[in-house]
UniProtKB/TrEMBL annotation:
<feature type="region of interest" description="Disordered">
    <location>
        <begin position="59"/>
        <end position="87"/>
    </location>
</feature>
<dbReference type="Pfam" id="PF13936">
    <property type="entry name" value="HTH_38"/>
</dbReference>
<feature type="compositionally biased region" description="Low complexity">
    <location>
        <begin position="71"/>
        <end position="81"/>
    </location>
</feature>
<feature type="domain" description="HTH marR-type">
    <location>
        <begin position="104"/>
        <end position="160"/>
    </location>
</feature>
<dbReference type="InterPro" id="IPR000835">
    <property type="entry name" value="HTH_MarR-typ"/>
</dbReference>
<dbReference type="Pfam" id="PF12802">
    <property type="entry name" value="MarR_2"/>
</dbReference>
<dbReference type="InterPro" id="IPR036388">
    <property type="entry name" value="WH-like_DNA-bd_sf"/>
</dbReference>
<dbReference type="InterPro" id="IPR051917">
    <property type="entry name" value="Transposase-Integrase"/>
</dbReference>
<feature type="domain" description="Transposase IS30-like HTH">
    <location>
        <begin position="5"/>
        <end position="45"/>
    </location>
</feature>
<protein>
    <submittedName>
        <fullName>Helix-turn-helix domain-containing protein</fullName>
    </submittedName>
</protein>
<dbReference type="InterPro" id="IPR036390">
    <property type="entry name" value="WH_DNA-bd_sf"/>
</dbReference>
<dbReference type="InterPro" id="IPR025246">
    <property type="entry name" value="IS30-like_HTH"/>
</dbReference>
Length: 239
């Protein structure tokens, strides 16, 4: 199996595979690379619908150039717990981040979310995030504010009165419920529009259809989140 960076020809094969609707595993088999390599390559370069081989190749060259410039100043990577491969962890965190970005997060919230999720403790302080991500405190503050507003993280004070940002097993439930509440607000405003624009008009009919659809989705999402939470909690408690 070849090693090293992807070549421009391999990137062209990836683009052709995506255009043909092939799965990442099949593309990986055709270029004789690990599936994780293909997934990371596609997700960090626009996702399956926007991937372009030439743009991806140039972007990789720019990233490599920046790394070479930053290498003398970069701190030595901390040793990994449980005997983990530091390079494999770094690459996985990068993939995790790009997948979060593809789901709609902007870069810094995605980086913070990935960093928190992939710690054994599930919590870090602002200064620890600054050190790990090598960004400014202001960038961390803005990212955490967004994640907090979406229910992705919660805040606690530790014994030293430092604010810690936490990702635990209940965070995704809280995020789903926040999404359901946000959708319910759209339902409410759509139904208000029916009265404003006149029942029986084409635009009112459109708004009513929007309200019905989103109302069903938000209720289903909230119900599914509640059920999943109870089932998983019961399985954990049973042993």
């Amino acid at each position: 199996m070849p090693g090293g960076r992807l070549t421009q020809q391999e990137r062209q094969q990836i683009a052709l595979g995506l255009a043909d609707g092939l799965a990442y595993a099949e593309i990986a088999r055709r270029v004789d690379r690990p599936t994780s390599t293909i997934t990371r390559e596609v997700m960090r370069n626009g996702g399956p619908t926007a991937y372009r081989a030439d743009l991806a190749h140039r972007a990789t060259e720019r990233r490599a150039h920046r790394r070479r410039q930053a290498a003398p100043r970069a701190a030595e990577a901390p040793p990994q717990a449980h005997g983990r491969d530091a390079e494999a962890v770094r690459e996985y965190e990068e993939v995790f981040t790009t997948v979060l970005m593809a789901s709609g997060m902007t870069t810094m919230p995605a980086r913070v979310m990935a960093c928190l999720t992939l710690t054994d403790t599930g919590s870090l302080t602002a200064s620890e995030l600054v050190q790990r991500l090598q960004v400014s405190p202001a960038s961390i503050s803005k990212a955490v504010a967004f994640l907090d507003s979406q229910g992705f993280v919660r805040r606690e004070r530790d014994e030293r009165r430092r604010e810690r940002y936490i990702v635990d097993d209940d965070i995704w439930y809280q995020s789903m419920m926040a999404s359901a509440r946000s959708t319910a607000q759209i339902v409410e405003i759509a139904r208000q529009g029916v009265g404003v624009l006149g029942p029986g008009t084409p635009v009112a009919a459109r708004l009513e259809n929007i309200a019905r659809f989103l109302d069903f989705v938000s209720e289903s999402l909230a119900r599914a989140a509640e059920q999943a939470r109870e089932i998983l909690r019961t399985k954990v408690e049973r042993p």
